[in-house]
Amino acid sequence: MSATLPALPFSFEPNLGQTDPRVKFLARSRGMTLFLTSTDAVLLTTRCAVRMRLVGANPDSAAQGIDPLPGRNHSLIGRDSSRWRTNSPTYARVRSRDVYPGIDLLYYGTQDRRLEYDFVVAPGADPSVIRLTFEGVDRLQLRDGGDLVLHVGGTQLQFGKPLVYQTLADGRRRIAGAWTLEDGSTVGFRLGSYDPTAELVIDPTVSLATYVGGGGVDQVFGIALGSDGSIFLTGNTTSVDFPMKLGSFETVINGGIDAFVMKLNSALTASVYSTFLGGSGDDAGRAIAVDVVGNAYVTGFTNSTNFPTTSGAAQETRPAGEPAGITDAFVVKLNPQGSALVYGTYLGGTSSDVGLGIAIDAAGSAYVTGGTFSTDFPVTAGMSQMVLGGGRDAFVAKLNGTGTARLYSTFLGGAGNDVGNAIAVDTAGAAFVTGSTTCAGPPCSIAGDFPTTGGVVQPIRPTGQAGGVTDAFVTRLTPAGVISYSTFLAGTSADEGLGIAVDALGNAFVTGGSASADFPVTTGFAAFTGALQAFVAELNPTATTLVFSRSVPTSAQLTGQLRDALPATPGIGLGIGRDGTGHLYVAGSEIRGGAPQTDAFVIQFSAAGTAPSAEFFVGGPGDDFALALAVDDAGNVFLAGQTTSTTGLATANTLQPTFAGVVDGFVAKITGFNPPASGGGGGGAGGGGCLIATAAFGSPLAREVSVLRAFRDHILVQNAAGRALVRAYYRVSPPIARAIEESETRKAVVRVALRPLIVGAAFALWSPRLAFVVLAVAWSTLVALIVMFALAHRDVAARLRAFAVTLLVVLILTAAVTVLTAHRDSEAPTAPGGTDGAWTAPKVGRRGATDVQHMVRRQSDRIESPRVEYYDADITRYVDWPLTPRTVRVRPTFYSGNLGYEIESDLADGVLTSDGFTVTEPKVTAALGINAGDRILSINGSPPAGGAFASLVLMLRDPDRNTVNIKLDRRGIRMERVIVVR
After folding, report:
1. Within this chain, do residues 719 and 856 fall inside the same structural domain, yes or no?
2. What average pLDDT does this structure show over 93-118?
3. How far is 895 from 572, CA to CA, in rounded Å?
4. Is the N-terminal amide bond of 443 cis, ω within 30° of 0?
5. C-alpha pair distances (Å), 935 with each of 336, 435, 642, 903, 975
6. Is 80 exceeded by the pLDDT of residue 9?
7. What is the DSSP letter of 329?
8. Rounded Cα distance, 931 and 881, in Å
9. More confident residue, 855 or 36
10. Whole-structure pTM value
């Protein structure tokens, strides 16, 4: 007998000191935290932060919990008992009385735990006074069905069409009602006729994929498309019940972990073949390519001594003298039926080697890249680099169509650690490789480091870079394997190239991740933030010019006034593809709003890197990692990866519509990408964007509009005068924008007229203080000139005195108004957060230092300054090392003046803010020399959230990316932990 427990109700708890005193009630549900003040509601979801403010509302409105719930909340967080909260009551609803004269606001939750709110209008009260303004959004949009949509980056928050009704003697009567857009950020309601003598209620509401796997852990790392529309996958599995197909090459798992290769039909309803690939050890597939007749080419790595190879292959056996358990790269070619190997070969030396990327040319030659520690890696004569440059080098190898010979094989690296992550081939047989390289510092040594060529966009490492930080690189090799060009693509923090594509002209398109605020961007695109962000860039055929370089605008990049208050959440680009019209598609993964939950995403760009579409998310309630991307000429996008989402991912009638194991692979087909609409969908041209500029440049996502929108959000709305100017603009601009849209001539004229304003706005964003000085002087000079010319009857001396006095007075008044408004704004309520929570789940299990075999040694010779100490912690064996914490709690919090997230996990507890991650309870990390109170500043050169996320993604792909470099601050002393996971 079994029973299903109903979901816990949506509940509100009063603020009893667990958060900012301006907050009256708070609630948490499904990745959202709600803070209620007298006139505001701040919604922090896992993707965005939005403040809903009642315009002109009563600041003294009394909020009252109603409908008490039987439960009580207890929060015993941390060692400070003064912060503990016990027996906190909970309520089903909160009612704010008289937010407007005769109007109450009622918050409550639905049965499926969504937030709803009602305005209850007393008889005789005027509902037209209700106006809502939204902060933290890009634009508002009214859809045809009447829904109000808040666009926040690529995320959309939907407020349903208002349900308006009265309860009369003859029952409930529906009243016609709709949202109205008053300006770019403010809405009201339009109502039909109703009985003014009865109470009125206005009720708005916030409102082809398949699994691949068995009962174990299954991960898809490579995807390719056949000429007939079929889909080829590779990865690795521990599942003995992995869905095999009879007649395939190998239908029984051979080791603890085996690679697999699967071919699906275009409808994802059946497998054409499915085979294990491996020996008695551990084997993993990492990349796949397909030729025109359907042969599949796979690379990866294996430590099996009996990996399936073929007679006469370039390297039939493991290198003599190689220790047991060491990995070698492999290359396999399967016939179109998946029933036999055309060839199979090892590729490696006596140290660790992994294959991570593969591409093929028209002749069937296979081009492979990856990483090697082997000084005896098999290289061929005449290459640009014949010897291993450092600890680990990237390699590039080309095999003939039968796999019997290496046409070329070369190292690619400097004195640090280098790896090739992805490879593409043009029609002439030139290979394009991207990956990462570290310098051998500290300090970084330029001479004798990673091989670059002259005249490229970035021939040397960024100045001031710390030792051990990764840089992305892009290298082109001729058909003979000689370096044609090689360039860095990096800033001073961690950067990684992870995906590459090439067009018929030899232009290279690259994606990856960057934590560098100074990562190179081209004109018109916003600078990187310094948090881990995906990037996309195009290099011309000689790498002498960046055609474009920009960040990928994922929902992790919050917009609006609340962005800078929150710690940035990481995203990374893992694959890139082009369709037949030149549109670019970037796929990757991001952590949502600082939470541990990961989303897979795809974004479309124009061929010029402009006009990004909204993010398209793939996945369910668990962690969804996009690990591979393929795009066909028609613009159909195929995404593959791994997921822990047991629901919400697969579609009906596909190969495997239900989740099967601990971790499953997945593949999804995404169709219907379209260029962004030019208008705001009912809100005037561009909705909440810059309406006139949107009308002139054709899209609210145009670079010029983005500059003006950023100027609005970061400069104008930060003071009262600027907000007044914005309000005035939105009153007069809609009819002007509509008139501009009607004429191409008017668009052209407006574009020319707006250029100086756009340049000025960009200047102001680059240096707000200097921009203020320039604008203040220009404004004051203009006023003084007007006064001087108005005194035409006076002599020259009097007019000059009037000019000087007016200039001085206006300058002083401008400065005074700016200072006063800035001071007032600094005292305005900020987005609140709670430091204590309502979870009553038991604490996760802890592991003591004795559970981890480790050694810590001080290396005084590596001290860069008296306040920096270096330690190495070497984890020699920890079988269940929780690279992905099994139990994590994330809650918004307000900590030391910063809005952030309180995190509880089985690794450590702490608070993540824009200043770093402050450890409150070290748990497992205590064994690594990390104590309570330590503030983690960076992980592998990225901010803590991004560094941890990037480390996890890279370790998933590459077993030799096992070093985690943690820099922390302990009461002003900078320290470093180097953790090696074996």
Report:
1. no
2. 76
3. 27
4. yes
5. 55, 30, 32, 14, 10
6. no
7. E
8. 19
9. 36
10. 0.65
